[in-house]
Amino acid sequence: MLKRKRSLAITAALILAALVLAGRIGLAQQGTQCKSCTDGLANNGNLVLTYDISGLGGTSEAAFTLTATLEGHARCKNQGGNCPEAANKFGPTAVGVQGVLGVHNGRAKGSVTLPLETTLDCPGNQNPIIIDATWTNIVFTVEGTVFLTDPGPISFSAGTCPA
Question: What's the predicted TM-score (pTM) here?
């Protein structure tokens, strides 16, 4: 009987410790805020997310995920600098990047980039040239908390080929 009481006491203490720890984690997440989280395009069409997040606690790193849907048109450019007439559609394709943000004094500040890339496969010595692209369904998450959702669209146009 004494053994069972001791076992119950240990179990209760472990459950209580887990609840206290969960409460602390919950409070840290609730106090976390994005002072500034914005998305936009670089001159080359890359999606750039700029962030300034505070309340990340005593950690030196925070895991992040940036995802989006990308679609557009591309053409193949030959060695002579010309493009065949076909405008090839690519996407919609789910793209994303994961990584770790550096945290200093509970704050992470910087930017994350999703590169504009096409899946167009050009024959011979031709290279794919992106004509236009659209980013949609943009989501930025840090440590499981969503800080930005943007349904889009955010559009990029490089003009025609040859450029």
Answer: 0.76
